[in-house]
Amino acid sequence: MGLFTFLKDVGEKIFGGGEAKAEELKKSLDAHGLDAKDIQVQVDGDQVVLKGSVKDQATLEKVVLAVGNNVGVAGVKTDDIAVSTPAEESVFYTVKSGDTLWKIAEAQYGKGKGDQYKIIFEANTPMLKHPDKIYPGQVLRIPPLK
Description:
- The chain is an alpha+beta fold.
- It is built from four helices and six strands.
- The chain has helices at 22-32, 57-68, 101-109, 117-123; strands at 3-5, 39-44, 47-56, 75-85, 91-94, 139-142.
- The chain has a four-stranded mixed β-sheet with strand order 1-4-3-2.
- Helix 3 (101-109) packs across helix 4 (117-123).
- The longest helix has 12 residues, at 57-68.
- The chain starts with a strand and ends with a strand.
- The model has no long low-confidence stretch (mean pLDDT 92).
C-alpha cells in the first residue's frame, strides 16, 4: 500500500507527551480488538513503520487508521505488510470542518447516496464509536460500494 499521511497534531492522545511510542501504538491496536497479532510496530520520528502480515485488506486499512489517527503520528508506512486476501483498496478521506458522514457519503458515492454513511461508519469501527463523533483532521476509510 505504501505511505499514508496524517495530521501530526490531530487525533487521540495516547502518549501523554505527544511523541509516538511503538509500545503504546501496539496497545492501542490490541485495545481496538483488531486482528493485529502478526504486526510489528516501529517508530522512526513521527513516522510509524508496520511490518508483518494481516488476513485481509480491510484489516490492514483499519490498522493504518488506528495507528495514524493519534497525536504525534504524521505517516504510516506499510511496504513490509503481507495481505493474505488482497482486495480493492479503500479511499482515505481527511475530515474537514462541517463534515458529517452523510455529507462524506454524498461526496464520495454520489448525490442521493448519503444514506450509505452507514457503510463508512462500519468500515471505520471499532475506531469510530458513534456516527456523529468525527473530527476535523481525522482520516477515514471509504470502501468501494458493492
